[in-house]
Amino acid sequence: MKLKFPLLLGCCMSVAAIACGNNSVPAAETPSEPATPEGKVTALTTTADRAQSFNETTLSFSAKPKFAEVITLNPAVRYQSMDGFGAAVTGSTCYNLMKMAPADRAKFLTKTFSDKDGLGFSYIRISIGCSDFSLSEYTCCDKPGIENFALQSEEKDYIIPILKEILAINPAIKILGSPWTSPKWMKVNNLDEKKPFDSWTSGQLNPDYYQDYATYFVKWIQAFNKEGIQIYSITPQNEPLNRGNSASLFMGWKEELAFVKEALGPALKAAGLDTKIYAFDHNYNYDKMADQNDYPIKMYDDEVAASFLTGAAYHNYGGNREELNDIQSQRPDKELIFTETSIGMWNDGRNLQKRLMDDMREVALGTVNNWCKGVIVWNLMLDSERGPNREGGCQTCYGAVDIDRSNYKTITNNSHYYIIGHLSSVVKPGAYRIENSGNSTKGLMCSAFENLDGTVAFVVLNENEGIARISLTADGKNYIDCTIPGKSVASYRWKR
């Protein structure tokens, strides 16, 4: 697959929940000067019945719209800038990738991460120590004493080699790191009794070890830096309100505030690291814990803690994405990113007819239209038996793609691969989401962007059974006539 500018991509599905999503106060940046359209527009299309899978076609500009439904893109009105789109590169993902023949792996990684010859995935998430998709439970300092910090075999033998291959394909990739647990020797049963808690699952961080744990983060970032791998951002704790994962740590907002304010923020600053810190990293509904509602807002209310926080990260395993709008309205100066969602046996995860529509609506366009600067789904690749996975973690999850364990060659694309690919292929890091207007068709959901190179991108979901016909324009003079199949996603990019 070669995706070259100028192009127009069309392969995604959506529902008309926020229509085309202009629910915001525009940013004040001055738009770039319009350019004369050149060449053709390329379209990528994916249908839920798999008849089309990132199918590429070429469209031409016309002086008048062919269809009655005209959607106008307005680059003069800007919302949030975009950091990127991608998936988690877990220990399990890296294990599966390393089982592939080198040529097959290179082909897949190029298709996924190349901005020139592939889909241009631009943001990935990795765990700091183990996750529930690792080859074992571990941290990078299991022997008591922070002086014993060291990268482990999972990093050295699997994750770092794969990251280096990805960076060779896309050197600009952004990497987010999140821990599932602190070292066990830093845990206590609760903050009142503070008894040692020798378990991978649950427990709380002993405040006596805040400084050591902050040093742990610094050493981890520096260790990756030494390998030529820059860490763009971190969260202090994956799913801080979830005590039940195979590796987990409870960290309420008061604890995370204290840790960031007293230890993590100052430690990164003292080490000269500009790695961004995103708070929370959990569900829209705060796991129905009333005292944890507005978790990041409560952290922002402390000016010192807020000074170290770039924004907040969210998952969608509970609650509604409208929570993103609520948080943004309270603190428009802080960023939002979406860092995890899963498909699996519980939600018919391999049924593209269902999942392409739901995931494009709720995860891709739904989060972007509600202010998220980045969108990351869970495992990039699992095998055909949903592994490798850990006891106590998710044993019913599917990957963005699944690879056949009998040959480590045959790959099946699932909904998450399509929804990320349809965004990443046309919306590049640094792009601004821009205003669009005119969509009146029920079942259509869309979002529009202007890239830093002056190209315009448009991604649309058609949840209807029938074909949708729309004309697009970014200047009121040149039109692109689009025929979007029923139950499909389409992406477009062109020079205006």
Kindly describe this structure.
The chain is α/β, with parallel strands linked by helices and 496 residues long. The protein has ten helices and 25 strands. The strands form five sheets. The protein has a ten-stranded mixed beta sheet, with helices on one face. Strands 5-6-7-10-11-12-13-15 form an eight-stranded parallel β-barrel, surrounded by four helices. Helix 8 links the parallel strand 12 and strand 13 (335-340). The radius of gyration is 22 Å and the shape is globular. The model is unreliable at 2-19 and 24-37 (pLDDT under 50).
Overall spatial form: globular
Poorly predicted spans: 2-19, 24-37
Mean pLDDT: 93
Label the structural class: alpha/beta
Structure keywords:
single chain, 496 residues, alpha/beta, ten-stranded mixed beta sheet, eight-stranded parallel β-barrel, 10 helices, globular, disordered N terminus
